[in-house]
Amino acid sequence: AHLLLFRPPRPSAPLSTVAAKSHTGPADCNLPRIGAGEQRRATELRTERRARAESYRRTFRTLAPALASPPAPWWWHTGLAARSWARFVARWVGAEAAARDGAAGAEDPEAAVEEARASVAATCLTTLLEAPTPDVAQNAALAVVAPALLLRRRGSG
Fold this sequence. Notes:
Distance between the termini: 36 Å
Strand content: under 5%
Number of helices: 6
Strand order of the largest sheet: 1-3-2
Number of strands: 3
Order of helices and strands: HEEEHHHHH
Shape: elongated
Radius of gyration: 19 Å
Largest sheet: 3 strands, antiparallel
Helix content: 55-70%
Structural class: mainly alpha
């Protein structure tokens, strides 16, 4: 249930907004629009996206040791855990890709997704290799084999 319900908190208010007409020139191309007459600086957007990706990383490190293996009669729990980890990892890869995309540095969205996959996989593999208990190893293994890390999107080479 922890994995299914986890969503990082949305920012309560923009960190800084300015009127759209107050800026002119080439610096404006780095200011994404968020609403009628409001803009945020690229650095603030980048900070928000990185904080969101970091919240997924912290949650993974917290939940991998916290989720225990079910008793043998609960065979259905294994499938539920695998699907839950797959969904969690897919959202985590999306958050990591958003943190690397556009104003955050990567020019190509596909490159941002590949970097995000590599980062998430490295975190999961580190947890798997350093697992102090079988439960941690099982949860990390379920995250490592998530389809979001293994499959390429359609249309990519």
